[in-house]
Design a protein that fits this description.
globular; Aminopeptidase; alpha/beta; protease; hydrolase; thiol protease; about 200 residues
């Protein structure tokens, strides 16, 4: 049985989130593990455009993954929120180093919006039928025009068949890192089976 590589990223701290629920939950996921035939690689990404622009292509190139899942925190969500698309422009919010892309764009000359080819509604339905605490919803909206959207667009631009983004609520609102990790695991395995 050949090993499949799955990369899961979480973000570092930023304003209002001295502890980022995404990275804490991804670390918890690493403790849980996925399955024996999946090599899970986790990476913490700073909330910084220039770092995201280099680190994401480098993770794809280095590991040739079966799947890349980015996880980010949002105070606007109360469930695991599966994002279906990302945008290329409108990046005018400053990152942790006070910068934003000079052209407010992710990939020069690329499509305005890229949709993931993963059927997130199918994943959502499957996970919501599992005996786990956390619930899942699909978002077809804007992923936020900040580092979440920016990172997701980078990956979708590389391979929209194998890129996903999941927004998680802040810790304790209402779920623990363990409950979020259990949900992430269920979502990732459902996506992996779909590929």
């Amino acid at each position: 049985m050949s090993q499949k590589t799955v990369i899961v990223t979480g973000f570092g701290p930023f304003e209002g989130h001295s502890v980022n629920a995404s990275w804490v939950s991804v670390q918890e996921l690493a403790r849980l593990g996925l399955t024996d035939d999946i090599d899970l690689i986790i990476s913490e990404i700073p909330v910084e455009y220039c770092t995201v622009k280099t680190i994401i292509p480098s993770l794809w190139k280095q590991h040739n993954p079966h799947l890349v899942v980015h996880v980010g925190v949002s105070t606007y969500v109360q469930e695991l929120t599966l994002e279906q698309q990302a945008h290329n422009d409108g990046y005018d919010k400053h990152d942790i180093s006070g910068s934003c892309p000079p052209t407010q764009c992710c990939v020069e000359g690329a499509d305005t919006c890229i949709k993931s080819e993963i059927d997130m509604q199918h994943v959502c339905n499957e996970v919501n039928n599992m005996p786990i605490e956390i619930k899942t919803v699909v978002s077809y909206a804007d992923t936020g025009r900040y580092l979440c959207d920016y990172a997701y667009y980078q990956s979708l631009h590389i391979d929209k068949r194998k890129a996903a983004f999941i927004h998680v609520p802040p810790l304790g609102c209402p779920y623990t890192a363990g409950e979020i990790a259990e949900g992430l695991r269920a979502v990732i395995l459902s996506i992996s089976n779909q590929l």
